[in-house]
Write a structure and sequence with these properties.
Number of domains: 1
Bound molecules: iron/sulfur cluster
Number of helices: 7
Number of strands: 2
Structural class: mainly alpha
Order of helices and strands: HHHEHHHEH
Helix content: 40-55%
Shape: globular
Radius of gyration: 15 Å
Largest sheet: 2 strands, antiparallel
């Protein structure tokens, strides 16, 4: 098996693991819906610096995000905010957003559940990565995105913030 931390071409083409990763996201969304955290639509969870929060993502999650998300709506910064959060604080990449975005809510009464679900689903994600022989490369979103910029993979050709 290849559990290298280095990204490779396999991890950049999500076609092989797209269905499995979406199934995992759907299962997580269902679990979060069952737990019912309150979202006040403040958008703080995506303004990382303001909320003192770093979004970690694996290589397959980034591959799916880059493949399926619409063009970013704000310039890529050094980690303060997410390029897919619009001016009203909404995510324009909801269908492709990574695991961390799906499990994280600022509702204080949900924090223990968030930690538990995060652990459960990251374990499932790791299993998927191992079974499909994909790289893990779990790192801050912005580190992945700046690498993708350097390699000419982000934003996609034709995107508004090119
Ligand atoms: S992908 Fe969407 S939910 Fe995740 S940090 Fe960016 S704007 Fe927020």
């Amino acid at each position: 098996m290849n559990h290298s931390d280095a990204p490779n071409m396999t991890s950049r083409d999500p076609s092989r693991f797209r269905a499995a990763l979406h199934a995992l996201y759907d299962a997580l969304d269902a679990e979060v819906a069952r737990l019912g955290p309150v979202c006040q639509l403040s958008g703080r969870c995506c303004r990382f610096a303001e909320y003192d929060h770093t979004l970690f993502v694996s290589a397959p999650e980034v591959a799916l995000l880059l493949d399926e998300a619409p063009p970013p709506v704000r310039p890529l910064d050094d980690g303060a905010s997410c390029p897919w959060q619009d001016a009203a604080g909404r995510c324009v990449a909801r269908g492709a957003r990574p695991l961390g975005c799906r499990v994280y809510y600022c509702d204080p009464s949900y924090q223990a559940d968030a930690a538990e679900q995060s652990e459960v689903f990251i374990r499932r994600l790791k299993r998927l990565v191992e079974e499909d022989d994909l790289p893990w490369n779990y790192a801050p979103l912005h580190r992945h995105l700046h690498s993708a910029v350097a390699e000419g993979r982000f934003p996609k050709p034709g995107a508004i913030n090119e």
